[in-house]
Amino acid sequence: MSNIIPVTDFSSPELDIYARLSETQLFHYHEPENGLFIAESPKVIERALDKGYTPVSMLVEDRHIAGQASHVIARCQDIPVYTASLPVLTQLTGFSLTRGILCAMRRLSLPHVRDLCRNARRIAVLERVMNPTNVGAIFRSAAALGMDGILLTPSCTDPLYRRAIRVSMGTVFQIPWTFLDCETPVPVLKELGFQTAAMALCPRSTGPENPRLLAEDRLAVILGSEGDGLSDDTIAASDYTVRIPMARGVDSLNVAAASAVVFWQLCRTDT
Question: I need a surface site. Which of 177, 198, 210, 247 has the fewest CB within 10 A?
C-alpha cells in the first residue's frame, strides 16, 4: 500500500520535484535515463497510468486521500504520498492544486517518427508552437477529432509540461506523438509519403473543404507558431496552403481553435 506521509518539512529534498525544480530540470532529472513530468488531477493521472507511465510519488490534499484521489492512490502501490491541507500545499508549490492531486511520473521513450507514421493517414505537425496552453488544446482536438498522430519540431513546447498536460485533459497520453529532429518538416513528411497542407494566411490558399484535400490518402496538416505562423520555406514547399474562411473582418483564429476546425473537416469523412 502507498505510504501516506504528512508534509512537515518544506525543505525536504523529496518535495523538490513539486516545489523547487523547473520543467527543464524535471526533464533531465534521471539523465541519461528518461526524466520526470508532473501530472495533475485524478483523470489525467489515470490516463497516464493506463498508457504505462510509472508513478514516482504524489502530492495530495489531505481531504482527498479517502475521496477522489483514493482510486488513483490504490493503483500506485508502494509509492510515497505526501499530504497536507490545501493552504500548506499552495504555500509549498506556489499554486493551487487542480482537484487536489499531483503525481510525479517517469517519462517513456518517444517513438521513432517513421514508426509513428507507418499506418497514419492524418497527422498534425506543429512548427515552433511554444505556448503550452495551445499545445495542450491542439492535442485535445487531435485526439477527439480523429487525427492519427502529432509531430513537433524541436522548438515546440514539450507536451509533457504540466500546463500542456492539464489543458489537454490527459490526451497527450492517448494520441501518439514524437519530436522531429529538424525545424523544416516538409522534406521529412514527403519522404514518409504524406501530402502536406500548410495552415497559412496566403493569397493562394484553399479552404479546408476542398475535395482534393479531403481525398488525399495521407495528409499532414502543418500549424505554425502563435505570432509568426509558419516559415516561408514550409509554406512554399507544401502541396496545399489552407485558410479557414473568416467573417466580420476577422483575419484568423488562434492556432488551437484553427486546428479543431481543420481536424474536424479532414477526419469526418473517415468516420
Answer: 247
